[in-house]
Structures are given as C-alpha cells and as structure tokens.
Request: fold
Amino acid sequence: MNSQAPRLLLLTRPRPQAPAWLARLTALGVPARALPLMEIAPPADGGAAARQAWALLPQARLAMFVSPNAVAGFFAQRPAGASWPAATLAATVGPGSAQALLGAGVPAGQLVQPPADAASLDSEHLWPLLAGEDWQGRLALVLRGEGGREWLADRLRERGARLQALSVYRRGCPRLDAAEQALLSQALAQPAAHVWLFSSAEAIGHLAQLAGPAQDWSSAQAIATHPRIADRARTLGMGHVVLARPEAAAVAQAFASC
Reply:
C-alpha cells in the first residue's frame, strides 16, 4: 500500500521472544525493531500453580499451552528429573509454542497443533485434532496467563473433560525504556514509515493506552496474525491492516505488500 522508504517493522511481542523473531526477519531482509507491547511477569503465586500442574500432569490426558510464555512459566517449575508422561498430549496453536515444547523435551509424537496449511492457527483449528478423543472424565490442563479465551476449554467441558486452568504467568502493559519510548514516539509521528506487527489483541489495547486518546490512527499500517487481532486494530482506527500467519516468511510477505 505504501511505497515510501525506508519502512520499519515494529515487533510488539514480549521482550523474551524478540531476539529470535528479529533474527528470522533480518535473515529475510525485513528491517525490524522490537517495541514490546506486552510485559510478561512471573505469577503472583510464586509458581505454585505451575508446580500443581506438574503434580497433576501424569494423570492428565492433555496439557494445553496458550503461548510460549505458558511453556516457559510451566517448565520453570519442572521438578528435578521429571520427564513428560507417555500418556499425556501437549497441545498448542502457534509454531513458537510448539518449538518451545519440543525444546523442553516434549516428544514430537505427543505434540498436537493445527496443520501447517490450516486457514488459521487457533483453537478452532486445533479442536478437530482433539475431538476424536473420548474426554469423558479425563483430566485436561490449560496452562495460560491470568484470564484468557475459553473457547477450547468450553469444548472440552462439553465433552465431559475435567478441566483445570492454571495461571503460570502474568501479562500487563509494558514499562518502556528510553529507547523504546523514543521509537514509539517516532512511530506515532511517522505512521507511513512504520508497520506494526501484532500477535495479540491485548497488545493493541496497551498501544492505545501508551499513545493516549488523541492519537490519530487513520494512517497507521499493521500486520495481524489472526482475524480477531485484525478486528481489534481496525476498531482502534488503523487505516490499513493485513493478515499473516505467525511465521517469519508469511510476515515478510505481508510486509512487502503493505
């Protein structure tokens, strides 16, 4: 849409996820910088919920991880010598979470995620892979931040599963350092020279909070990794929003089209 150069892609994922994403984008020739719009913090319970999840894991048929942050929060409390139970499935929707689970030692044969060619990487496209199971009376764990979407949990409950949702990290509006604040100010002042990459609708809310109510978003450009996130960006008033899968190659292609 916009041919002005140079343009800069703004990666809004939490700080711990930024280096790997920036490396992949840079390798694809995408000029990008990190501007985190989500702060990830340890849970208020000091890890008690994650330790409870580990105690329950051998009894569970499923452990659902909503994000790489959930994977990190859970495995931070891994008991010494504990391994992934042979009868427990690990499910997630995003490739980043899947890689984190494999890296933590979850066997590939027990990992369930939407197929690579799924129309969208979300719970709706994960559920068909789980729906064939007999869930009556079986334990399903959901590892997440505080709160979160209930769609998959509702499907499991409808099928008779015993659901246990456990918060293993906290999300919040970030405290930007001086360099990040300067980058934000630059992006708000020069919307044609920047493209936002959103992987969370909550992050868009944080951006609105940081920018203030007087900001004009009509010239802003954004890439969203899910239709719900795109809708949130449009609701804010962003003038040009495109969809891309949460993969570096897809984001690079979308960036070229902006």
The longest strand covers residues 162-172.
